[in-house]
Amino acid sequence: MLSRIRSNKGVTLIELLVASVIALICAGAALELYVNQQKNWLAQENITDMQQNGRATLDEIVYHARQAGYQLPPGLSAIFASNSNPDSITFVYLKEPVCEAELTDAMSLPSSDIEILPADADCFEVNTWAYIYDPTNDDGEFFLIAGVDNNTGYIQHTGPLSKAYPLSSEIYTIEFVTFYIDNTTDTLHPKLMYQRFDQPNIYADNIEDLNFTYTLAHGAVVDSFIASSVVREVNIEVVARTDRVDPARKQDYLRDTLRTTVYLRNMDF
Question: Cis bond leading into 160, ω under 30°?
Answer without folding.
Answer: no
